[in-house]
Amino acid sequence: MKRSILLIIATLMGCSATGSYFDFRDNMTDEMALNYYDINGLCRLKDWHASMKGNWMAGGNEQWPKNQRRILDLIETKGAFSAEEMELIRSEKIRVGMSELAAYCSWGFPLDINESVGSWGTHRQSVMGRDTYFYFENGRLKSWQK
Q1: 108 in helix, strand or coil?
Q2: First vs last Cα of the chain: how many Å apart?
């Protein structure tokens, strides 16, 4: 009932539920998800799902691990990350030299990004949360601070 009301409100406001986490979880086959989401979208889906651990909306404690494995398998199927980066993403770890998207896919997306561009290239500071920062140079993780 609550979901129906929210869907009606979202539709009236001009929003579409297509491609939402709930559509992914309840209605999409793996093939449909691979066609709908790009790698960035799958990583964002993983980030949102991770924040819902144990919550009934993410399938509760029984379904959560199954859904998490499914998302990770779809990310791997896309082939956007090296085998080493994929292993880090699965274990929610980071390493110097990994791509910016792989780091976000592993630990989640930043709350804010500060960027400097110059003749040296692009330097990016990603504010990941309370007292945690990632530092990227030209799209590669150079260091982090906790």
Answers
A1: coil
A2: 43
Q: Are 137 and 115 in contact (CB under 8 A)?
A: no
Q: Is 21 helix (H, G, I), strand (E, B) or coil?
A: helix
Is the pLDDT at 10 greater than 70? The verdict is no
Q: Where are the domains of the chain?
A: 2-96, 110-146
Three-state DSSP at 102 gives: helix
Q: How far apart are CA 130 and CA 111, in angstroms?
A: 10
User: Model pTM?
Assistant: 0.81
Q: Which residues contact 18 (CB under 8 A, 6 or more apart)?
A: none
Place of tokens 């980066």: 85
* One-character DSSP codes across 92-118: T---TT-BHHHHHHHH---SEEEEEEE
Q: Give the model's pLDDT for residue 1.
A: 53
3-state helix, strand and coil shares in percent for the chain, rounded to the nearest 5 = 50, 20, 30
Q: Which residues contact 15 (CB under 8 A, 6 or more apart)?
A: none
Q: Label residue 95 exposed, middle or buried (CB < 10 Å: 0-12, 13-18, 19+).
A: middle
